[in-house]
Amino acid sequence: MRKVAVTVIFLGMLMVFGAAPAWAKEPAYPELTLQQAVKLALANSNALKAAGLDIDRAYEVRQDAADKLSFIPVGAGPFDPMVEQAFTALVTADLGWQMAKKSYTARNDAVTVAVYQAYNDVLKAEENVATLELAVKSAEQEVIAAQ
């Protein structure tokens, strides 16, 4: 009889002190929507900011290369090494600029996907909390029935 009383008291204390955080109610609606979470993540991503700066830098390099090709020296033929070198530099800089823009888009997509995954993980955790709250209520009913 004494073991049963100690067990019931122990379970009661466990329910009161162990389940108290589970009783805290969350707001009925999420405080942060998925779109707001994505917007915040994109605004605060250092990798995305760096990719944006890379685009600006690559554009400046491209503009410098284009400025060097804005004129053709007098007497230079179509196969002049200086003209070929300037044109190759322009094409290379333009490709670098295009790659920087693609890199920015890829990082933007990566941040968005990461936010989607984290948001879904939070929703799953909320469902687990709701399930565990029901288990706590069921256990409370069993304790009451056992008493």
Which characteristics define this entry?
mainly alpha, 147 residues, 82% helix, single chain, rod-shaped
| Overall 3D shape | rod-shaped
The average pLDDT value, as a whole number, equals 81
E-strand count:
0
Rg over alpha carbons: 32 Å
Residue windows where pLDDT falls under 50 for at least 5 positions: none
The structure class reads mainly alpha
Topology:
Blueprint: H1 2-18, H2 20-23, H3 34-44, H4 46-68, H5 81-146
Helix pairs in contact: 1-5, 3-5, 4-5
Task: Give an account of the 3D structure.
With 147 residues, this protein is an all-alpha fold. 82% of the residues lie in helices and 0% in strands. The protein has five helices and no strands. It has helices spanning 2-18, 20-23, 34-44, 46-68, 81-146. Helix 1 runs antiparallel to helix 5 (81-146) and helix 3 (34-44) packs across helix 5 (81-146). The longest helix is centred in the C-terminal third of the chain and has 66 residues, at 81-146.
Concise description?
With 147 residues, this protein is mostly helical.
